[in-house]
Design a protein that fits this description.
Helices cover about 65% and strands about 0% of the residues. By secondary structure, the chain is an all-alpha fold.
């Protein structure tokens, strides 16, 4: 699989996750939904997976920008991706 194919696959995965996220958010807005707790847990998990995908995409693009191999990027643990500290001067 070429690097461009990997990037397209990653972007496709992001699009699918975003679509699922929208569906879950609509379900959570339905007051008759009997599985709201399960939907919230699924949404949280999906948001974490989406954040990991975006992080991987950013890593790949940063490596490519400095002429390094983007395939050396890797999926980081949820705990790391979800707990980035803001840069100095950025709002928290």
């Amino acid at each position: 699989m070429s690097d461009d194919d990997r990037e397209r696959a990653l972007l496709q995965q992001v699009a699918e996750l975003v679509e699922r996220e929208h569906t879950l958010r609509q379900q959570l807005g339905d007051p008759t939904d009997q599985n709201r707790i399960g939907d919230r847990a699924a949404l949280r998990s999906l948001e974490e997976e989406l954040d990991q995908c975006w992080d991987l995409l950013r890593q790949r693009r940063a490596l490519r920008a400095v002429h390094l191999d983007p395939t050396s990027a890797h999926v980081r643990p949820v705990e790391q991706v979800e707990n980035y500290l803001p840069r100095p001067g950025e709002p928290t």
